[in-house]
Amino acid sequence: MLTRFAFLCxxxxxxxxxxxxxxxxxxxxxxxxxxxxxxxxxxxxxxxTFDAAMLEALPRRTTTASTPWYxxxxxxxxxxxxxxxxxxxASGTVLKVTALNDYAVEIPLADLRKWPVILATKIxxxxxxxxxxxxxxVIYPFDEDSSLYNExxxxxxxxxxxxxxxx
Length: 167
Description:
alpha+beta; Sulfite Oxidase, Chain A, domain 2; 5-stranded mixed beta sheet; 4-stranded antiparallel beta sheet
């Protein structure tokens, strides 16, 4: 029995090591997101770079929510933040999220593990333009957990995201 347990532990550690060393393909289109900092997996000197197609290929979610930015419930779709963190092998505790206009906010990495936070790339089924808060908008599941519907989490919901630094 101990031998079988030891084998399973060794196999699990081997798989965990393989996942930590995941290959990230190079973007084929324009880079819309760069993840840097405490990450294990990179595809560029500055960190892990992603084009729209690469983000579309990650595990996704659709969240329909009331927000202070739109007059009615809005449907947001995009990759799960946790899936992105897993792919890059994030090991920090805080994410510094920076927008195209250099606005920056810190988001506890734990938020993306606790809730299904998405990096929305679509609103109501259409890609989000820069004019409409795109190409990436951090969205919490506001309507699924009433404790999220407040200024703290609205402030963490950065839009026009261009970089994420794992600290």
